[in-house]
Amino acid sequence: MAVENATTLTFLSDLTPPSLERTWLTSPHPTLPFVATCSSDKTVRVYSLTNFRLLSTISGGHKRSVRTCAWKPNISGESVLATGSFDATVGIWRRWDNYEETARQRQQDAALDIDDNQLVGEAEEDDDEWRFAVLLDGHDSEVKSVSWSASGALLATCSRDKSIWIWEDLDDGDNNFETVAVMQEHEGDVKCVAWHPAEECLASGSYDDTIRIWREDIDDWGQVACIRGHGGTVWGVDWEAIENVPSTSPDGSSGRREEAWKQWHLPAGPRLASCSHDRTVRVWRRQPKALVSAPGASGIPSIIRPSGADETWEEDAVLPGAHVLSIYAVAWSRRTGLLASVGADGRIVVYEERFLAASQMAQPMETDSATPAREGPVTPSHPPTEWKILAIVDSAHGIYEINHVAWTKRADRDRDESKEEEVLVTTADDGSIKVWNIMR
Amino acid sequence: MASEMQNSNPTILNTADLPTRLRPSVSSKSSTYGSEFFASTLPSLTEGSLDPISDYSQTPSESESDGELMEEPIDEQEIYDLISTINDPEHPISLGALAVVSLPDISIKPALPDVPESPLQTVTVLITPTITHCSLATVIGLGVRVRLEQSLPPRFRVDVQIKEGTHSTADEVNKQLADKERVAAALENGTLMGVIAKMLETCQ
């Protein structure tokens, strides 16, 4: 477990005041500098990333722990949050985007020396501005994860009842959602769902140890791939950015490899990262479509495909092992391509993917680090890369387990405004939420 | 719960024969922590100055003054005493008397062997259901896990498993008991918690 020294993960701030009970997940807003944290105390707290303070507490919607939440992307002027709870329901909440104005107003008020009582009154009013819009009822047991499609038109929810529901937000001003599909192929609790960064394609991870990929074929949503490989519950999945390119190795000669990478990556599409109770983080890649449909050039019979929609996914890499207990979450930065994982051992691990240096490629070509070459024609893969551990933080939340990790844009006053800095947000069992700065 | 008993005639051990540190609490305490016993017989000395404590008592708990951090080391016997008094869900008999839990099947190990300074420890409890197809094994396991999570400091990771070869669906039960999310959701399930609370009524 070699860690390179150049990169450090440093503690920036806690989000305060914290929940006094277990917090499960923190979802960064897609455009504005705040996050929403789900708690076992049945509430969601909205914190500012500018000053790390609590902005609002959303309560009263759920009868049990709030397990998950996600911000609807692609809207402006208003924020929409979906929350999933152990009470088997999904809540939709709305608020006009005026936190910034309210903050400015407060500063002006403070400058004018308006007395504190009035300010407190205003703060309380702010809380009321989160409007409960609708409760989506359908799951039979605890909702574990929710995710909005890139366009914001579809919401996927999953549950211990082994099903995934896809809802369409009709955006009719009346908060109507229509059930588009109910998928029940998983053989155990569905622990997580995540939409493809651009397409209407969904990935899910489950207690049945599989990852499944779902797409709409003509008019029907269905499973297009079932990915086996993990030896335990799949707790989390996350997609790569569409235009991600691995980092350049220190010897620099990677121009041609980047070209080759792009040529492979475009038809293959973004890869998927997953983490599991089996203590591994794995990366999966899709065989480019054109290659799959072409008959085997060598005459070896190709795998029989019952449907043209089916996709072939294979293991791209197993990341270097750095966790000794269950891994609960993985986050693949859409900005930098860095990957972070957290889990029951209280550790944060950050990984980077690099092109193999020319010197490392002199050995007999092994086109990818994980899968042994199959018989018959070798599937063209991407230029070889390797995953390196950049940083490990032990006991990041003291003795507590870390349930979630997310990347987001840095927004506090001390940031370097000349570049777009990124921070990690981690969420733990004791209710604490911490923000970390990555220094390279 | 089930109206028909799954095992109406279980083997029962005599509670007096079970290993414990609980019953003759004064004498067993004094034998294990002789220095404390000594100190408590001489209250005038210990009150007067701090020296007698630091000199004669080796327990770190006495040398610091805020309560929680300096718990006594927790050993297998203490874990056993916490869970052996839990009642079986279908009999008014304790898990200790039914030999569902036993001292040799409890172990405490560092949770992060690669980080020697870490205070995290894993308590592993292997439970032996009274019959191999007992559908209450999950409930018993959950009862043990809840009892330990409520009694032990948070630096303990609790791992409850069915002892190998003693249950037909052990893997399934083990996977459920190891799933933090399922356990958390079970704790919010009123019916299930009613059963667990009844099992734990007999615990001190």
UniProtKB/TrEMBL annotation, chain A:
Positions annotated as WD repeat: 59-93, 136-168, 183-214, 418-440
SUPFAM superfamilies in the cross-refs: WD40 repeat-like
Region (Disordered): 364-384
Keyword flag Disulfide bond: no
Repeat listed as a keyword: yes
InterPro entries in UniProt: CIAO1/Cia1, WD40/YVTN_repeat-like_dom_sf, WD40_PAC1, WD40_repeat_CS, WD40_repeat_dom_sf, WD40_rpt
Key words of the record: Repeat, WD repeat
Entry-linked Pfam families: WD40
PANTHER family listed in its UniProt record: CYTOSOLIC IRON-SULFUR PROTEIN ASSEMBLY PROTEIN CIAO1-RELATED (PTHR19920:SF0), WD40 PROTEIN CIAO1 (PTHR19920)
Family under the similarity heading: Belongs to the WD repeat CIA1 family.
Record function comment: Essential component of the cytosolic iron-sulfur (Fe/S) protein assembly machinery. Required for the maturation of extramitochondrial Fe/S proteins.
Protein name per UniProt: Probable cytosolic iron-sulfur protein assembly protein 1
Source species of the chain: Aspergillus pseudoustus
Gene name for this UniProt entry: CIA1
TrEMBL record, chain B:
Domain MIP18 family-like: 76-161
Start and end residues of each stretch annotated as Disordered: 1-69
Keywords: Chromosome partition
Alphabetized Pfam families for the sequence: FeS_assembly_P
InterPro entries: FSCA_dom_sf, MIP18, MIP18-like
Keyword set includes Repressor: no
Biased composition range(s): Polar residues: 1-14, 25-34
The keyword Kinase is annotated on this UniProt entry: no
Protein family (similarity comment): Belongs to the MIP18 family.
Protein's name in the database: MIP18 family-like domain-containing protein
Taxonomic lineage of the native organism: Eukaryota, Fungi, Dikarya, Ascomycota, Pezizomycotina
